Amino acid sequence: xxxxxxxxxxxxxxxxxxxxxxxxxxxxxxxxxxxxxxxxxxxxxxxxxxxxxxxxxxxxxxxxxxxxxxxxxxxxxxxxxxxxxxxxxxxxxxxxxxxxxxxxxxxxxxxxxxxxxxxxxxxxxxxxxxxxxxxxxxxxxxxxxxxxxxxxxxxxxxxxxxxxxxxxxxxxxxxxxxxxxxxxxxxxxxxxxxxxxxxxxxxxxxxxxxxxxxxxxxxxxxxxxxxxxxxxxxxxxxxxxxxxxxxxxxxxxxxxxxxxxxxxxxxxxxxxxxxxxxxxxxxxxxxxxxxxxxxxxxxxxxxxxxxxxxxxxxxxxxxxxxxxxxxxxxxxxxxxxxxxxxxxxxxxxxxxxxxxxxxxxxxxxxxxxxxxxxxxxxxxxxxxxxxxxxxxxxxxxxxxxxxxxxxxxxxxxxxxxxxxxxxxxxxxxxxxxxxxxxxxxxxxxxxxxxxxxxxxxxxxxxxxxxxxxxxxxxxxxxxxxxxxxxxxxxxxxxxxxxxxxxxxxxxxxxxxxxxxxxxxxxxxxxxxxxxxxxxxxxxxxxxxxxxxxxxxxxxxxxxxxxxxxxxxxxxxxxxxxxxxxxxxxxxxxxxxxxxxxx
Length: 598
Description:
By secondary structure, the protein is α+β, with helices and mostly antiparallel strands. A hairpin with a 3-residue loop joins strand 25 (about 510) and strand 26. The model has no long low-confidence stretch (mean pLDDT about 95). The protein is built from 19 helices and 28 strands. Helix 4 (about 95-100) runs parallel beside helix 5 (about 115-130) and helix 14 packs across helix 15 (about 340-350). The strands form eight sheets. A six-stranded mixed sheet has the order 4-3-2-1-5-6. Strands 12-11-10-8-13-14 form a six-stranded mixed sheet, with helices on both faces.
């Protein structure tokens, strides 16, 4: 099965032996994670698609791959249109497509450890209209075909220091116990990996770029807990850290443990817990309370220690970025640089801080046409030279013990065109529009999304992704529930009220297919804002990222006086904060980049 066409044919044959007419392959794991370990990369193995979000459906005579607007170009580069139909979501859902394309009376398989119960119900209804049924498989049929499938990571857990977490794990479990008492519940199931890492003040190395460990947990109303994790991942330091109030079990014992909660009132998150978890609770006779995991919102609202840690990480990361930008400005026009060599150089600058533990995601290093693919992933096969006349886009971040960073900047190689400067300046105007927003406490992110799009909309332009995502505290670079995205854009849908302490990205963009891409991304912190004479609590954003925005791509004539004032104040802050961390040569370069505009 050396080709993806061979793998598709083999899966169809395997399904036939199981009396199945189709199978659904999502890109996730049994924790509903966005970023997954190598063992769970079934979609990539089957199709060749290397994006971070997508689903495939295989039927006897057709197959489809579902991606959102971030991957419209990438999926066509990586997945053969001879064997796969490209379907855009959210315009068409997987369930809707199944309802329209599944053969009458078909048996469509799914892995109950990779889907939510809501999806199962939705797909079941859609298939019922064709007399078809959705069938849970006891094992994943792809695993029987994937001969060299990696084993789950055996990386050790590590305790996360209380002084960085801001609260002890015992305090967090006590808070969760109080939450359970308010709901008259006996226990809550935690299955999201970042929720477990946060609640127990532990970190791991089981998912690339995300410091989490493969585990499950059940927290009880008496503030004790059961943690399900492979025993070889636990050292004495972690066992001491967890203490006697946390009972440790093998990860494989989790499902049977759920079946043993007969008669208990058990909370489980319908968005983050897979269908198999609800099935096991039902089978055991538990009374299920389907509510959001209590760690989700608490984790999103950063405490003072987490905010201070993030600020330290941002300052450290900014120094690495400034060194990189100075280097790429000289190296790219000289020739000989590629997307991979530039990404490696940036990684090296971050390593030189002496504090980098990992990247926060695979660096998006795209030049020219590749920059127009919002979530482009450079490989040895796609690696392109960085050439004069192009825009080079780099979206990257670091994982430091005290914080997680994420930043995007664009560098012109040579003299940019008037169109490039116009588009970049419009993106900058949108970035400033969001950065300066003042809004009532409880505003949802979708209400602010248009602030960043307006300058592009006024020119008949737009971008195919949300404007902002949450960021964790030495955790996931994409953290929920906070987001800034209207329902009709990827990352949109039901929006969370924005609250003080949340960290989000501010990243409008513009993408001209086949030519170039632009995105300006800083991280921002939501803080209270006192408005003289105001009648209700208000919030605002405080920018946390301090790296210069490329002045050669800005058309000052398009900026209003207030926008110029913001930009100049921002660059003054960049110079004041980052300048003292640099040597004379880099500080002089930064001073020139931060000189007033307009």
